[in-house]
Amino acid sequence: MPNQILFGTDGWRGRIAEDFTFANLRRCTQGFANHLNAEGRAGESVVVGYDKRFHSENFAAAVAEVLAGNGFRIFLTREATPTPVISYAVVAKKAVAAVNITASHNPPTDNGFKVRDHHGGAIAPEGLATIEAGIPEDSDAVKVMALEEAIDGGQIELFDASDDYVAHLKDLIDLTPIREAGLTILVDCMWGNGAGWFPRLLGGGPTKVIEIHNHRNPIFPEMQRPEPIPPNVDAGLQATLEHNADVMIVTDGDADRVGIGDEKGMFVDQLRVFGLLAYYFLEVRGERGPIVKTISTTTMLNKLGRLYDVPVHETGVGFKYVAPRMVETDAMIGGEESGGYAFRGNVPERDGILGGLYFLDMMVRLGKRPTELLQLLFEKVGEHFYDRIDTVFTGERETRKQMIRNAKPSSIGGLGVLGLDTTDGFKFNLEDGGWLLIRFSGTEPKLRVYCETTHGDKVQKILQDGLRIAGIE
After folding, report:
1. Is the pLDDT of residue 443 over 70?
2. Residue 420's domain spans which residues?
3. Going by C-beta distance under 8 Å and a sequence separation of 6 or more, which residues neighbour residue 302?
C-alpha cells in the first residue's frame, strides 16, 4: 500500500522528507485520534512533546493541530522535553494519552512518532494495530485546526512539564545525599533532551556535575547515533578519564534510556546495569515485587528472583510488551536490553534520568564505585558477559526466518543447545544458562544477534555462530 505507516517496536519512525513528511505525520495523527475516539475518549486531553532532532518542534505543532481539529484539548510542551517527563505529564495533567515526536536512538536522518496511554506507558500491540488500521490513506480525511487559532481558543495550551516531574522525583528518591557526596559525575547528554537535568537536580553541593554534548546539534557529532552503547559513548568515556570522574551517566536522544561508564573509563553494558538496578531495589532498598524483563536481557535477573523470592516475567522485545505487564503485575522494575528501565511508583515507562539517579544513589548508599558494585553483583549471581552485533541484511525476512528455524544446531560457541524459544525472534538457550538471540529490528532494516554467557572467552564465538545460523558470513 502506498504511504503505508507501520508501528514497530516503539512507534513509527521514518526518514525525514522521504516517508516522515508532514502529510504522512498528519495522517498518522488522524489515525491516533480515530483510535482515541473509538475508545470513548473524545474531547479529553492529550500531551504532545518533542526532542531536539531536525524540525521536531514543527512536527509536534502539526500533531497538535490535527488533535485539536479532532476536538481534543492539547498540552504542547514549550521546548524539547525528555520522554519520561512527557510520560509523567500524562498523569499530572490527567490526560488520556501522549504523542512524542522523537526517533530516540535512530540516525540523524530519522524522526519518529511515539504514543503513550493514560498510564504514561507504551500502548500494547493490539492498540497499535487499531491505530494503524485507522490511518486514512490520504490527507482528505485529516481534520486540522490552525495552531494560532487553537491557542487563541484555548484548545492548545503551551506548558512546561518539568515542575510536576521534579516534584514527583522528590517523592521517589532523596537527592540530598547524592548532592552532598562530593562525587564527580560526567554526564553525556548525546546532544539530546537530557541536557541540564542532572545539574538542575544535583547542583548546589559538593558533588560536581560535568556535562558534554549538552546543546542542540541534530547531526550528533562524535557518535554514529544518540544510542548509549559503544562506540557512541567512546567520547564520553574518554572525558570520564580526563575529568577523573567517579562515574559516567549517559542519556540517549530523548533521555528515556541510560548508560553507565565506570571510574576507569570502561562501559558497563546494559544487562549488567539492569542486574545492578534490580540488586539495588532488592538488597539496598529492601523492596520486593515482580521483575519484568524482555527476552533479550539478562538471566542474572532470574537468579536474583530465585535468591530474593520474587517472580520474574519475560516478554517480547519493546516496552509495548513491558509496560502492560508492569501495570498488570505491579512490578518493582522492568526493562530491556537497550538500556531502558522503568520503576514502580513512577509511570510504566523507561526513564533515563531516574535510572541514572537510582544508580548514583546506590553508589552513595554503599560507598562504592561502579567496578566495586559489579563485584557485589557477581558475588550473588556469578560473572556474566554480553555483546551484540547489528547487521543490515538483504532478501526477504520470511526466507531468512525459515533458514534460522531449519538450522537446529546442537551446539553454539562450543556450548550445547538446550532448546529454542520463539517468543520474539529465535532464542537458543545454552547449557551454561546463557543464550543466543537472533531477531529482526522492529524499527530498522537490520538483523540483531545478541548473546549472554558465563564464559567470557566464548562471546565472539557464539555471535559468529549466530551470524552463520542467520546466513550471514
Report:
1. no
2. 385-469
3. 312
